[in-house]
Design a protein that fits this description.
With 192 residues, the chain is an alpha+beta fold. Helices cover 34% and strands 30% of the residues. Strands 1, 2, 4, 5, 6, 8, 10 and 11 form an eight-stranded antiparallel beta sheet that branches.
Length: 192
């Protein structure tokens, strides 16, 4: 009986040693691969720093894509149910619309409560030239919506559901702009 305990302990120690060696060799190989890539890039004069800065500072980071990946791979949550709980079920109500800058200017009732078009993440709250107080929501469908001339009822990086309250119009003007992949797109398909 004593011999079997000794044999089992020795066997488990061997397995732990094999795992340690395997992990150590894997880390060394990954380090060698990274070093080779860096050496090749220096030899070919590839400027990672400028490319990285250009990508990070000149493009919009899709937080909604990160959320989907996080839910899928890290939390294991699959979004089979795409139902959202809308606060406002009616469509946006306006009496007049006209093209304004990169979007549209809507005439709404005084102190109009602005609903979110789609679910998404609040990525900007502040003043924008010609739009005034603005809230930008990066929707789950990849479209960034600028809600201008709005007193915000949301906070930065809040996840908001479709139909939930964005804020209240400062007067009877609501400015909207829609941006996809860094380019402004036609507003007509979004405010039907």
């Amino acid at each position: 009986m004593v011999e079997s305990k000794f044999y089992n302990n020795k066997k488990s120690d061997n397995n732990n040693l094999k795992k340690y060696i395997r992990n150590f060799i894997t880390k060394i190989l990954i380090t060698i691969i990274v070093l080779l890539i860096l050496l090749i890039s220096f030899k070919l004069n590839i400027d990672f720093k400028n490319d990285f800065n250009k990508y990070v500072y000149n493009t919009s980071l899709p937080f909604t894509d990160f959320k989907k990946l996080y839910n899928t791979y890290f939390l294991g949550i699959k979004e089979d149910n795409n139902e959202t709980k809308e606060v406002f079920t009616e469509k946006i109500a306006y009496t007049d619309s006209s093209v304004y800058e990169d979007g549209v200017k809507l005439t709404v009732s005084d102190n109009y409560l602005v609903p979110a078009f789609e679910s998404g993440i609040v990525v900007f709250i502040g003043n924008k030239d010609k739009y005034g107080k603005t809230v930008i929501v990066q929707q789950m469908n990849g479209v960034d919506v600028f809600y201008g001339n709005v007193n915000s009822d949301v906070n930065m990086y809040d996840y908001i559901e479709k139909g939930s309250l964005i804020g209240e119009c400062i007067n009877n003007k609501l400015y909207l702009a829609f941006q996809k992949e860094g380019k402004f797109v036609d507003y007509k398909e979004y405010i039907k």
